[in-house]
Specification:
There is one protein chain. By secondary structure, the chain is an alpha+beta fold. It is 53% helix and 19% strand. It folds into three domains: 61 residues, Nucleic acid-binding proteins (OB fold (Dihydrolipoamide Acetyltransferase, E2P)); 74 residues, 5' to 3' exonuclease, C-terminal subdomain (DNA polymerase, domain 1), CATH 1.10.150.20; 62 residues. Helix 2 crosses helix 3, helix 8 packs across helix 9 and helix 9 packs across helix 10. The longest helix has 20 residues.
Amino acid sequence: MIARISGRLIQKLPNQVIVDVSGVGYSLLVSGSTYRQLPELEQQATLWVTTRIREDHLQLYGFYSQDEQQMFLKLLSVSGVGPKLALNIVSRVEVGQLEQLLVNQDVKLLAKIPGLGKKLSQRLVLELGEELKKGYAGSWSQAEMQTSSSGSTKRNELLAAMESLGYRPTDCLSAVDQALRDQPEERVEELLKQVLKGLHNG
């Protein structure tokens, strides 16, 4: 079984890459997060690998970090979640934020991820939420727990405001949480400006 690949990056697409290892090209499907962290073409790239085997097909999935790979595998353990959907989820939401959504049982926001829906989001929370809470919650700072809480009025107001402006809430999580960490006491109107600025600068 291939656990990790390190070689020359010879093809780089948003969802697929080819890594040349001693003259052999390995094709791997990747998440949006991994794609954004990869080097330029012809540079050395290292990816953690998960292999999925079907009756007539072998597919490699590459991940820039082991955390993302482990989340991908956890998602696959849930009934109704296949490799395509699991990869889409980790592409839309960063691993740390996804953990927080699951622990906080934020079904409403999870359901906004394309392909999930309410019922499958509830299943993810039920099957993974408690496990993640035991494994990861202790590593989050008090500030992170406070700003990520689904009961946070400011956070929910900001996400609702961004959605009304045409943004997908799952695309705004990083900018919203960063604004809340930087200026937790600021008014929502001012925080919204910071979120928009962060998205445009990003």
